[in-house]
Design goal:
Length: 156
């Protein structure tokens, strides 16, 4: 057995195996690796798009929350203003009602004072007539002296 012939035969077999591998095995392997690399690149791009979409969505959510808070605060302020105006209106109405009640009470008091004065005048006139009767020791006719008694009432 010749070492050179064996070495040459192994070289030829290796060369044939290398050609067969490069011709039939290598292209499908490279194609599979390229497809896998493309899928990984697409996945990474999709992840980046997802991150950017998430960041944009978070910004929109924050903006919506801010606008909702602002709208809520505006409604609260409007409600407080409306409540204050209702309270002010109620106070004004109560003050007007109190003034009306006080005026009515004053008018009623004046009327009662007037009635009391009239009653006192009548009583004073009656007492004056009785006093005059006592003084004169005779009866004074109230109907006959009505003008005199009315004059006396107005003086009192």
């Amino acid at each position: 057995m010749n070492l050179n012939a064996t070495l040459f035969a192994q070289f030829v077999v290796f060369f044939i195996l290398a050609l067969f591998t490069m011709k039939f095995v290598w292209p499908p392997l490279m194609k599979a690796l390229d497809e896998r690399a493309a899928k990984i690149a697409d996945g990474l791009a999709a992840a980046e798009r997802g991150k950017s979409d998430l960041a944009m969505a978070e910004k929109r959510v924050q903006a919506e929350l801010a606008s909702a808070q602002e709208a809520g605060q505006k409604r609260i302020n409007d409600a407080e203003k409306r409540g204050q105006s209702i309270v002010d209106g109620a106070k004004k109405t109560a003050e007007e009602e109190a003034a009306r009640i006080i005026a009515a009470a004053k008018a009623e008091a004046e009327q009662q004072i007037t009635q009391a004065r009239e009653a006192l005048r009548d009583q004073v006139a009656t007492l004056a007539v009785k006093g005059a009767e006592q003084i004169l020791k005779r009866e004074v006719n109230a109907a006959a002296h009505a003008d005199l008694l009315n004059q006396l009432k107005t003086e009192l």
